[in-house]
Amino acid sequence: MNLDGLKTTAGVDVRAKRVLVRADLNVPVKAGKVTDATRLERLLPGLRDLAGRGARVVVISHFGRPKGAPEAEFSLKPVADKLTELLGRPVAFASDCIGPAAESAVAALQPGQIAVLENLRFHKGEEKNDPAFAQALARLGDIYVNDAFSTAHRAHASTEAVARLLPAYAGPLLMEEVDALRRVLDRPERPVAAIVGGAKVSTKIPVLTNLIAKVDKLIIGGGMANTFFLAQGVNVGKSLAEPDFADTAREIMHAAKSRSCEVVLPADAVVAAKLEAGAPARICPVLEVPADQMILDVGPKAVSHYSDVLSRCRTLLWNGPLGAFEIAPFGEGTFQLARSAAAATRAGRLTSVAGGGDTVAALNAAGVTGQFTYVSTAGGAFLEWLEGRELPGVAALIRGPR
């Protein structure tokens, strides 16, 4: 997919125009109050820019997983109220995202004003990418802007079909994400390292297969490393592993070697008899894991080796923790390597991009999220990009109206 065709609204006259903005307002809400506004705060500059240029801004989004019909607990009203607070100006709210209620709310907007429409998933047509539902949405805008990269992997009406019906543009958050991912995967400064962790090889096969053709060093950690050890005939005791995917791991290693990509596995590990907080743990070489123990983190020699590998690289892509970081003391390997990568980034020696839910949580726990070049919160869309797949929401922006 040629991403050079992505356009933004910079230079586009939006005065008095209805700009339909697909945002991601899917934030935590408890007792009718937003409990984490981080995602909303990132959206504010784009909304302020459009409103400041005189646009009539119409924000649409999903929220939670309603079953295609209105459910009070999934209303976007608390989110609209939070946006009013964050923006310091009234944000109108419509009780539906299509039909008379939505049309009336949009018609009432003056240039520079903002409205949030009710949850898209209150209609079955959203997730079905229904043309009639998309037409009803398109009637509410003159211009379409997708600023929700986190939903770009879904071919839904608000992300795919609507972009074929209106002049379509990428929002600043979506562009920021695309630029960051292109920087590490399409035009990186070499050498490039990727850290891929997590529990299972089976969930990361497409990611690993795509990355070995793009990176110079592939550092593998987490439970998935155990399957690679099985592929080499190494006993991993009671560790989580997938014997059925040992052949796949072996094939990935052979393919990596043929592409001059070095697969880096841990030399030592932190082991324990149980995965529980405070469990007695010790460090041992990977080749000497006792039969009654399980690998729960990478050891200090592995962290030192990984850090040395990163010191000779210019670009890093990180997806997945190296151990069971949520339970002490099995997060130290992940935290130490994260701090090492953050230090190299601060020093200007490394461009670092990380993503995936567990990865973001691990970087937060290590206290270094803000020190990476870019941290993606896009979840599924981030993973599908790593797999080399076309994202419908991005492709629709490039192809534009039919």
Task: Summarize the structure in words.
The chain has 402 residues and is an alpha/beta fold. It has helices spanning 38-52, 77-87, 99-108, 124-127, 131-138, 157-161, 172-185, 205-211, 223-231, 246-258, 300-311, 332-346, 357-366, 380-386, 392-399, and strands spanning 18-22, 29-30, 33-34, 56-60, 91-94, 114-117, 143-146, 168-170, 192-196, 217-220, 262-264, 268-272, 281-285, 294-298, 315-319, 351-355, 374-376. The protein has two domains: 3-170 and 395-399, Phosphoglycerate kinase, N-terminal domain (Rossmann fold, 3-Layer(aba) Sandwich), CATH 3.40.50.1260; 178-371, Phosphoglycerate kinase, N-terminal domain (Rossmann fold). Helices cover 37% and strands 17% of the residues. It has a six-stranded parallel sheet, sandwiched between helices. The chain has a six-stranded parallel sheet with strand order 11-10-9-15-16-17, sandwiched between helices. Strands 13-12-14 form a three-stranded antiparallel sheet. Helix 3 (99-108) links the parallel strand 5 (91-94) and strand 6 (114-117). The mean pLDDT is 95.
Q: What labels would you give this structure?
A:
6-stranded parallel β-sheet; Rossmann fold; elongated; 2 domains; alpha/beta; 402 residues; 15 helices
Outline the secondary-structure elements.
Blueprint: E1 18-22, E2 29-30, E3 33-34, H1 38-52, E4 56-60, H2 77-87, E5 91-94, H3 99-108, E6 114-117, H4 124-127, H5 131-138, E7 143-146, H6 157-161, E8 168-170, H7 172-185, E9 192-196, H8 205-211, E10 217-220, H9 223-231, H10 246-258, E11 262-264, E12 268-272, E13 281-285, E14 294-298, H11 300-311, E15 315-319, H12 332-346, E16 351-355, H13 357-366, E17 374-376, H14 380-386, H15 392-399
Parallel strand pairs: 1-4, 1-7, 4-6, 5-6, 7-8, 9-10, 9-15, 10-11, 15-16, 16-17
Antiparallel strand pairs: 2-3, 12-13, 12-14
Helix pairs in contact: 1-2, 9-10, 11-12, 12-13
